[in-house]
Amino acid sequence: MRKELVRTGPAPLNLPFSPGIKFGDLVFVSGQGPIDQNGKVVPGDVKSQTKTTLENFRRVLVAAQSGFEYVLQTTVYLSDLNDYSEMNEAYST
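Structure (tokenized):
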């Protein structure tokens, strides 16, 4: 088996890594954030930034012929735990 890079289009941030790697039936998604297609942080509250982050995550999964229904684990980092309920509300939709 070989690793396949998962690409979602031109990388807006010019970073030296792929947004995802496919290895057999497994897909590994790199860290995602509230970044638009121009590489800019999406302004707004935690809820809207979470939705943007999840949309970026979904793009990687779709590019790898996968979807959220196959995700086994995610890790969420918040700079302020007071934002947890707002993030969780967006995350659960």
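Strands lie at 3-6, 20-23, 26-29. The helical segments are 46-63, 84-91.
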